# Entry
Amino acid sequence: MRRILFIDDDTHILDGLRRSLRSMRDSWQMEFVSSARDALAAFDAAPFDVVVSDMRMPEMDGADLLATIMQRSPATIRLVLSGHADTAAIMKSVGVAHQFLNKPCTPETLQTTIERACDLKALIESEAVQGAVSGLKRLPAVPSVYRELVECLRKDDATLDSVAKVIGRDIGMTTRILQLVNSAFFGLPKTVTTVDRAVAYLGLETVASLVLSQGAFASYSAAELNGFDVEKLMRQGMQTAAVARAIARAERRDKQTIEHVFLAGMLHDVGSLVLAVELPQKYADFVTRSAAPGADPRTIEHEVFGVSHAIVGAYLLGLWALPNTIVEAVAYHEQPSACAKGDWSAFGIVHVASRIARHPNSADPCDPRLWLDRDYLQRVGVLERWPEWKAAAATALKTQAAA
Amino acid sequence: MVNSPPKVLVVDDNPVDRELVTSLLAGKYAVGCAPDAESGLELLSLERPDVVLLDHNMPGVAGLDALVTFVKAGAVVIMLTGANKDGVAAEAFKRGARDYVLKSGLSRNVLDRIISRELERRRLELDLQATQRRFDEVASRIPEVLWMRALDGEFLYLSPAFEQIWGIPRSRMTPADWLNALHPDDKAAECKAVEKVRSGREYDGEFRIVRPDGSVRFIKNRGYPIFENGELVRFGGVARDVTDEMRMQAELRLAQKLEAIGQLAAGIAHEINTPAQYVGDNVAFLAGSFRDLLPVLRAFNDALDKGAIGAADIERLRALAKTADIAYLLEEIPAALAQAGAGMEQITKIVRAMKEFSHPGDDMTPTDLNHIIANTVTVARNAWKYVAEVAFDFAPDLPTVVCLPSQINQVIMNLVVNAADAIGDVVAGTDRKGAITIRTRHDGDFALVEIEDTGCGIPQKMIDRIFDPFFTTKAPGKGTGQGLAIARRIVVDNHHGRLQVTSDVGKGTRFSIRLPFEPPAAATGSHPAAEQVA
# Structure
């Protein structure tokens, strides 16, 4: 039985949830409380696997409650269900919530979100993965600038200025961000020379994404990299991000999803970096073996490491407390059909984007080099949209090639 | 230049006369000599003398013809003549000589006096030219039109900017042309204004002009009477094109309105999303309940069709009822229906309030203040519900107030949101709530609205500044400091009412709005011209 706690100051909401989720009563043990204080008291009695909290509540709001729960019980999955869908509310939950759901949210969406969050957690915390990951000497820490950025964004009085200052303190990061922002990748009308202008042009989320991915790829020194081409990995990440964004737009996804697939695209192969640096011998073996004609790199990866780079990446991003959508997208980007309750969402888009970015000239979705998960695409009923994605991707990649 | 002596050129064919004049001028002036007009002209262009002394009787070119040539070349010429004939003197003046001196009367003093006077005159001319040039430089560069008119209205001066703004040439502007360029609706007022300045008073005018291309510009004009020896002689002033300023002001007003709507919209979305969530959940539950109940209902129907119910039927129905958890459903379905209904009511209420709030019409209308206040409080609910309870204390028989409801809505909204913010500062992090009390009263010719909060209060040293534009104590991004300034403009300027505040730090603040039931006839909501620009 999963233990799930719902918090909302409006008892009508709690009544509605209790009734509409009643069909889950055989697999979920649910409790409903109307204040943060009661929530913490319930936690003291017995911890929960999942909490679903309202955002704005008197006394202590959802973000503060989730932050407290994160400290007391880090393993708990933390979701927000809020009627405030503005950027400020979403920003406040970054780093403390695994996922942000908007009211009104159907009982089905709530169910799948909770189930998938639990599945994902089970997947990246499975014994096999734990065993493989514990063999790694150390995992990159979340970039400190990103952590500061998230803390800054969580404050009520966060301004463009204060955000720019946080980034500006790290000269190396500032330089990399400005280089990126001014590359043809973003196609800005004029050269941006300061971080606050970059934030003004691209929005906080995109700049935060850039900070995170730049930080992640800069985790290792040149000596540690030992010849591993991190630049190439980054370039592929950028291309995947651009294509993923183009597809999400073509699919008319909301702004948050577009941001998420963008960041997931940039980071989708971060697990490869970790494996290559931490297990250089095995990685060399893996590269040699998967270069053989007709070899399936996914099988070889499992044979060599006992775990896939996708799961290692997802594990890392999970540790970094990134939104679940991103962790999920990284975890399933190679094989979305592995997600049992998978619908046509962010991880599917990142999968398609990573395939197209890797082989931009493969026009046929059946091309074996693509390793496109056609079973999944067929199941969610979108395979026939392949030509539209290719067209959107071609435009996105053309802009990038001009860089 | 200041230290070098003035240069004098003596043009005379008689060497004795040249000698004489040179000796008379020596010491004070630098003297050059030429024996004839040709070499004189040459020296003139080389040396640029300040004054030329030109002999009248010279061979070759006749003296007067030489004079013309010298004057044309820009020289200040004084004729030297032997003959004392008035005709010559008059002719010389006519052709541009500044003066003439009889050779018989030559003396150091006479020459010195005449030359000094010419030099002084020259200096004044140059000064005047410089002043004129500086004035022209200013007048041609500033975007304002400087103008001067005679008492009969004829234009004495119009600066170059006039052509830019009016789009017509400024030379030969007549009073009729001036009137013609005015917007038909503004002619009468401008004529009156001209009369006013003619009677010796200053005036401030605003009018529109229609340019030849049909475009309309807004002009602000200030006129000043000009007196000489206590007598009104002319009038002059400055006219300014304020079209862009007015457009910017209108845009700023619109931007502020949009900002307020944007802040509202987020709150409204929340007010709708929350009930939408539980309406949806309850409907989903009802759908599921019906699915659960179907087997029971079918079995019941079957039993009815059979016409007789046996023990086995009863047993079957009982088993089905147990599976469906009928006891639970009997209890929960009515509650679910009631909450779904309540949610829909909540959504309808907020949508209706929002509609009324947004489209109340922009004309002065007799308005039920109690109603629009209650409505605005509903719209602002998301701003106060976490921190305060709102209590209404309305005068039940308050007569209607002739006002612009959209603007009064804005004022009430502003004061309620401020009250909630002030209370929020006090109750933050506690489970307490403050109180906002809104009172209406009949107060003579005025309707009185009081909005009272139990917030943090306003310190005495700030209370005088709270109505200043851009004064704010809120954190960056929380307010532009325009709210109370706008509220005051709306109440005082647009409605001829009063807006007052009393505050006790730590206890709370009370804003009092007094609106006349019937505002004076002249009251208009907003500058009609500004609306046209927008």
